[in-house]
Sequence to fold (383 residues):
Amino acid sequence: MNTQLITIHTTQTMKALSIALVLALVGGFTFTANAQNAAPFAGGVKLQQGGGTSPSFGLTFAAKQTYTGNMQLNFVQPTGNGILKVSNWGTNAGDVNVTTLDLASPSDVGTSILSIANGGTGASTANGALNNLLPTQTSNGGKFLTTDGTNASWSTAVTSVGLSLPSIFTVSNSPVTTTGTLTATLANQGGNTVFAAPADGSTGAPSFRNLVASDIPNLDAAKITTGTLPVNRGGTGVTSLTPYGVLTANAAGDGIVSTTLDSGQIMIGSHGGAAVAAKLTAGSGISITNGNGSITISQNNSNFINKKRIALSQTSVSYTGQTPPAGFTLNANSIVTITVMETGGYPITATVSNIDTANNTFDFVISGYVSTATSFALVSFQN
Fold:
């Protein structure tokens, strides 16, 4: 096996680079190049990007080729992850200039279309590229693109949309098969029902139902601001009362009547009728004085109850033209009571026989003669 040393270096603006390179020749021998080597030669040059700042490259030769002179490789520092290209020959015989491949330049890329298999789109237009990259559209009209998380595919589109709501709603225009608007309105319900949760106190879906007592919270009476509370609900049945009036029930018993009383008036019952406001009537020997908030009843001492002693005779049983005490006036309703005080203690009765209101006199008789001259009759008068 023969070994030779060659040196590969830059000749233009790049700094010298020494590379230890092992070349495998087709003829079956290997040499290490670290010095200048004769060129040109029949064969080829292969350059490949090997890093962000420095290229790696290799040399290939035709079998058993000979070469004389110096061989030089000229290259530039590529951009990060760029691609190197052989642009032209250098100024010296056998020099090769290496520059960065410009994918945006038509002269670098050419007019060929990169296939999908080689990382391209297989098309020269955006729409063509999109069609090539999507799953086949043949027989998939009206479908939409979906994915299973790994691959995209066509899926059948929705052909109709319907709306289903609880029975308290009425749904219109359902389903929509092309275009349209789904609408919902409240369905008709029974009268005097409310939309509320279950009436038994448990949780559940609300519905229209009748109110129950447990639906109404405890409310202060001040919350009732309208209407008239009837008597059968503990009210008065009226909206207003007479100032300072006395309350009595009306004839139907379903309302309150208020009556204003004058000085000295009181409510006096009337059998089978409504109580009336009236004043007391003074009787004989009675005085009534009415005031604001007061009624004064007093005895008329000169004409109320009076007594008189009348001496009896042992020879007379009839006594006429007797007069009452001074100041007492007899009337048709006067009551005259006679008690005989007989000394012997014999039972003797006395009876009034006549009351003369015109002369203010009365008569009486006794049932027998008294035994002593000191016997007398005690007479009481009352109107």
In short: Helices lie at 106-109, 126-133. DSSP finds two helices and 24 strands in the chain. The two ends are 178 Å apart (CA to CA).
